[in-house]
Amino acid sequence: MNDVQLLLVISSIAVFSFAMFVFMVKKDGSNLNNGLIFNVFLVSLFVVIVMAGTLFDVALVKVLMNLVLILFVFVVAFGVFVLVVGLIGNGYVVLKKESKTFANLLTLLMGLGILAFIIIKNLSFIQSVPLFHNMVIALQLLIVYFGLSFYNYLISAFVHGFFKVEMNKDFILVLGCGLIHGDQVSRLLASRINAGLAFYHQQKLSNPQVKLLFSGGQGDNETIPEAEAMAKYALKHGIDSHAIMVETKSTNTRENFMFSHALIQAEHENAKLVFVTSNYHVFRSGLIAKQLNIKAVGLGSKTAWYYLPNAMLREYVALLVMKKKSYVIKVILLLVLFAITLILQYQFP
Question: What residue ranges define each of the domains in the chain, with the CATH number in brackets?
Answer without folding.
Answer: 3-160 (no CATH), 171-303 (3.40.50.620)
